[in-house]
Design a protein that fits this description.
The complex is a heterodimer of chains A (318) and B (281). By secondary structure, chain A is of the alpha+beta class. Chain A has helices spanning 10-18, 71-83, 91-97, 135-138, 163-168, 171-180, 185-193, 199-203, 262-281, 291-294, 302-317, and strands spanning 2-6, 22-25, 41-48, 54-55, 64-69, 100-106, 118-124, 127-132, 147-149, 210-216, 222-229, 239-240, 256-257. Chain A is built from eleven helices and 13 strands. Chain B folds into two domains: 8-109, Elongation Factor Tu (Ef-tu), domain 3 (Beta Barrel); 115-242, Nucleotide-binding domain of ferredoxin-NADP reductase (FNR) module (Rossmann fold), CATH 3.40.50. Chain B has eight helices and 15 strands. In chain B, helix 4 (132-144) links the parallel strand 7 and strand 8 (152-158). In chain B, 50% of the residues are buried. The chains are: A alpha+beta (318), B alpha/beta (281). Chains A and B meet through strand 3, helix 3, strand 10, strand 12 and helix 9 of A and helix 2 of B.
Chain lengths: 318, 281
């Protein structure tokens, strides 16, 4: 017996869910689903200046739902889970992750799914099949909008195979090519083109670098240690002996930047995704969601860049 | 689940001025020692508080955190010493504190010098300026286990004589190991070596097949490798370098401290030189 939901009833189902859960719909959001588990900025400690007490804020006591992850997003979340569990579980990420139910919405009819807790899988123009993948997904498996049926009208929906998708299946080649490409001219060109705005990392569903910053309350009684999204393309990313103190006692005389130029920083982004990630997890940290290209103000197409590098690598080394 | 970013409150029990812009802070750390072992914290045998070369993150709320390699003996579990040069936001704030103030500390993190591998070998330690702390901790460890090591040399350089830190310690160590000091530019009161010169090499008597080198320091240390360590015949694999990068999380997540394929915080901060020599950054 299979469970299905009519396409037009998904909206009503969401309304029903909203009675018990907080529901975040990521179908049209610019930032990926990671923002609900690893927020753009979060408090990690609150320090009371008077009592000297240090408190860890408790986040999200209630379960919540992230709705509408597509196939790439589901895979990205699985990768992010792995990253946030290595080498030690990240306390703040898992605090939220344990309370979250990821609901996928995919138009892909193959049986194997890359992640998520419960997934709505398109089987024909009007219907979605319900697939419960985890215990957390079980929590919301019952609804008056779900119908049991034996007779499924399944239409095959496949993902179109693009060149870059195929390349992602060969992380070893990507690793070798990107590592080898360090001195290619293309990086000089990209260094000129890239604005160093950090957009690509913010919209990436897997990018997860962060910085830690202290914020003092206006009354000076409390201080909050926050962590916020950073981007490896920003100039401050590798800069030490940082900005001057408010009194201006220190001037950036001895400051040192480990990644001085945009070219170095931009290369570092690729290096992390395709080289370091391969060494750490055996796969590329890219799922071909296309966001980084869509939101790049300089119009850099990452897919194109990687394909070109791989082609040059193959033609010049083999 | 353990909050891996949780720091401990520690008290500054002593502050000592080491040079015009460097101070030593002695931190009472009973809690650090009793803390349940963190997976990346590999506490050495024989009750070491940390392994020389590991680092701690010291922070002041309102200013931030910065990494420091403790310089005190790893056998001391009542306190650790950190050496701080006034340079950026956190270090300037630290310099403004008085004895008795409280700061926050987490760690120790990372992998220290391979002290077991170094045993029964000749050891050459090379460092410069503010790179002395982890080397100082290593020296303390070696002196405590002096019979387990062969000939031990400490080559320590700085810009000016004033920049040579821990002068009283250097005198103390001279009883047990050979200490060689050098400065960058000649000056009147200085009667010893100037620059990374071959004199340093000719005075070092080691069996290069059974010797290791431990290093820590800024960019000019590369020059020391060329001028001093390589001429001694020590292979790159036996040169252990304590690296430095921008540090934020300290536990291998935030991506700031990477060098090539490695994270300085969890794979280092001590690396074989041949592991990192070819890294593009």
């Amino acid at each position: 017996m299979k469970t299905i939901i009519e396409k037009k009833q998904i909206k009503e189902w969401l309304e029903e869910l909203k009675k018990d859960f907080k529901v975040f719909d990521v179908r049209k959001s610019v930032l990926p689903a990671k923002q609900y588990l690893f927020p753009t900025k979060e408090k990690t400690f609150v320090f009371n200046n008077k009592s000297g007490e240090l408190k860890t804020p408790e986040n999200n006591k209630k379960d919540f739902i992230v709705f509408g992850l597509d196939l790439e997003d589901l895979e990205a979340m699985t990768q992010l889970d792995e990253i946030m569990n290595t080498p030690e579980p990240d306390f703040f990420y898992w605090q939220r992750r344990e309370k979250s139910i990821l609901v996928g919405l995919v138009d892909y009819s193959k049986d194997i799914l890359p992640g998520g807790d419960i997934v709505l899988q398109k089987i024909n123009k009007n219907q979605y099949k319900i697939r419960v993948l985890t215990e957390k997904g079980e929590q919301i498996r019952k609804s008056k909008f779900f119908k049991k049926t034996e007779d499924l009208k399944i239409k095959e929906y496949k993902k179109e195979k693009c060149e870059f998708k195929k390349l992602l299946l060969d992380p070893e080649l990507l690793h070798d090519a990107v590592k080898w490409s360090k001195d290619l001219k293309i990086w000089d060109e990209l260094g000129e083109k890239c604005l160093g705005c950090g957009n690509c990392t913010y919209v990436c569903p897997i990018c997860h670098c962060f910085s830690i910053e202290d914020r003092v309350g206006l009354d000076g009684k409390t201080c909050t240690r926050c962590r916020y999204w950073d981007a490896c393309t920003l100039p401050e990313f590798g800069e030490v002996t940082g900005p001057p103190t408010p009194k201006g006692e220190f001037r950036r005389a001895s400051g040192h930047n480990f990644h001085k130029t945009i070219k170095e920083r931009y290369y570092n982004w690729y290096y992390h995704k395709f080289v370091r990630a391969y060494k750490e997890y055996g796969k590329a940290q890219c799922v071909d969601c296309g966001r980084c290209h869509r939101y790049c103000p300089a119009g850099i197409d990452i897919e194109e860049v990687v394909i070109e590098i791989c082609k040059t690598y193959i033609s010049q080394t083999k | 689940m353990q909050n891996i970013y949780q720091p401990d409150k520690v008290k500054i029990i002593k502050i000592k001025k080491l040079s015009h812009d460097v101070k030593l802070f002695r931190l009472a750390t009973p809690k650090l020692i009793t803390k349940p072992a963190f997976a990346t914290l590999r506490r050495g045998d024989g009750g070491l508080a940390f392994i020389p070369g590991q680092f701690v993150l010291a922070g002041i709320f309102g200013y931030g955190e910065a990494p420091f390699g403790p310089s005190s003996s790893p056998y001391k579990d009542s306190h650790i010493d950190i050496i701080v040069r006034k340079a950026g936001t956190v270090t300037t704030a630290l310099h403004g504190l008085k004895e008795g103030s409280e700061i926050f500390l987490r760690g120790p993190y990372g992998n220290g010098f391979p002290i077991d591998f170094m045993k029964k070998k000749d050891v050459v330690m090379v460092t410069g300026g503010c790179g002395i702390p982890p080397i100082a901790a290593l020296t303390e460890y070696i002196i405590k286990n002096r019979d387990k090591f062969g000939n031990v040399y400490l080559i320590y350089g700085a810009k000016k004589p004033d920049d040579l830190l821990l002068k009283d310690k250097l005198k103390e160590w001279e009883k047990d190991i050979k200490v060689m000091l050098t400065i960058d530019e000649p000056c009147e009161e200085w009667k010893r070596c100037v620059g990374w010169v071959s004199d340093l090499v000719s005075d070092v008597k080691i069996d290069h097949k059974n010797a290791v080198c431990a290093m820590c320091g800024p960019g000019p240390m590369m020059k020391a490798i060329e001028k001093v360590v390589r001429p001694l015949g020590i292979s790159d694999r036996r040169i252990f370098v304590n690296m430095e990068r921008k540090m934020q999380c300290g536990v291998g997540k935030c991506q700031h401290c990477t060098t090539g394929d490695k994270y300085v915080c969890k794979d280092g901060p001590v690396f074989n030189f041949d592991e990192i020599d070819k890294n593009w950054d």
